[in-house]
Design a protein that fits this description.
single chain; alpha+beta; Immunoglobulin-like; 4-stranded mixed β-sheet; 13 strands; about 25% strand
């Protein structure tokens, strides 16, 4: 929602659809500060040479974000969250009754960009890199369900996440159909980062090192000398063979003594 404040709003003392208090200021001044990093003002200029003859002095909420200020430091453009939506409050009118903004080249880019921003078109691009989170809602308080359909045609959100999750990470490559909590439907293409598709050939020395990884045999140079020493490998020895040989020896000795003992008994008998 875009709210432009005029003289009639100053008489009521409040911003429509908001509890912000305002008062009328009749003083000619220009813009003093513009937040260039705001998506709402991207490419919309910096209000150069715009003169505001009459403005509404706004007391913003603690959670509001002031995107532009007048020369005296009072808010010129303020952004506030309203449920799943947002509102831009402009402390002047959009006609030339209280300013000369419509006569400047920055007016049309400002109107186009703010409309695009409020419609949500600037939030999520149609093509993103794998792993990019897509916003589903602005607050946890909104109970409207969101939905994400993956490239395989399956729903990606559980029942709890559909009503509580604020974002979802698009991991798999392919096309996603996203329905946000505010009712907006998006078709997003997810692809791998092109920086991962580096087709530069691997240097020959790197391939040589990889080819000998784990090889413990000595390498021979052209002159026949080894380039590296063979690594000694320690192998554990099993004792079961020695135990078996010992048992066989004991059995043979026992057989010999048993045979002698039987012979002596027979001779005595």
């Amino acid at each position: 929602m875009f709210i432009a404040l005029g003289p009639n709003n100053a008489l009521s003392g409040r911003v429509p659809l908001s509890s912000n208090r305002i008062s009328e200021v009749r003083e000619t001044q220009g813009a003093g500060f513009v937040d260039g990093e705001s998506a709402a003002l991207a490419g919309a200029g910096r209000f150069e040479n715009v003169q505001f003859l009459e403005t509404a002095r706004l007391t913003p909420k603690p959670t509001a974000r002031v995107l532009a200020k007048l020369a005296d430091g009072s808010p010129l453009l303020t952004e506030e969250a309203m449920g799943e939506g947002r509102a831009l409050i402009f402390s002047s009118t959009l006609d030339n009754s209280t300013n000369d903004f419509p006569l400047h080249a920055s007016f049309l880019p400002f109107v186009a960009q703010t409309a695009r921003y409020l419609a949500g078109a600037a939030d999520t691009p149609a093509s993103v890199v794998s792993g990019t989170p897509v916003p589903l809602r602005r607050t946890h308080d909104q109970g409207t369900a969101a939905d994400v359909i993956g490239p395989d045609g399956r729903h990606q959100l559980s029942l709890r996440d559909a009503t509580r999750a604020t974002s979802f990470d698009l991991i798999e490559n392919g096309f996603y159909e996203v329905q946000r909590a505010d009712g907006r439907r998006l078709l997003m293409a997810v692809h791998a980062d092109r920086r991962e598709s580096d087709l530069t050939p691997i240097p020959a020395e790197t391939l040589e090192l990889w080819s000998h990884t784990g090889n413990t045999s000595p390498q021979i140079d052209g002159d026949g000398s080894p380039t590296q020493k063979a690594e000694r490998q320690t192998r554990p020895w099993s004792l079961w063979r020695y135990a078996l040989m010992l048992l066989l020896a004991v059995g043979l000795v026992e057989s010999v003594f048993a045979t002698r003992y039987l012979r002596e008994e027979r001779q005595t008998a």
